[in-house]
Amino acid sequence: MTSVRMDKWLWAARFFKTRSLASRACEIGRIESNGQPAKPAREVKIGDMLRITNDGGDFQVEVLLLSEVRGPAAVAQTLYLETEESKTLRLKVAAERKAMMNYAPAPEGRPSKRDRRKIIQFRGRG
User: Fold this and answer.
1) Is the pLDDT of residue 77 over 70?
2) CA angle 61-33-18, nearest 5°?
């Protein structure tokens, strides 16, 4: 096997939960292969540099192995090598997101009827 479809490889490497989500990410431009926007049917080859944006963050990876089947997470992590700057940037963003939770804590519970009316009034619907 010398190449694999982009959406299949992204799914097999566990960047996306389903192949259709991987395909959709390609279509809306969240996947770049060697600096070019990638379509779902684009062929992935060993040594390609991919930039992947998903809910987990922004990844820059080098393709090490090819696979069309989705296996365990431990096997999926051997398919690629994430660059050091990508790892540090992702960890920094995660730490910032975690720190922001201290300044804007989640509400304790549901708003009361009075609070809900104030929210509706504030939004300009009432």
Assistant:
1) yes
2) 75
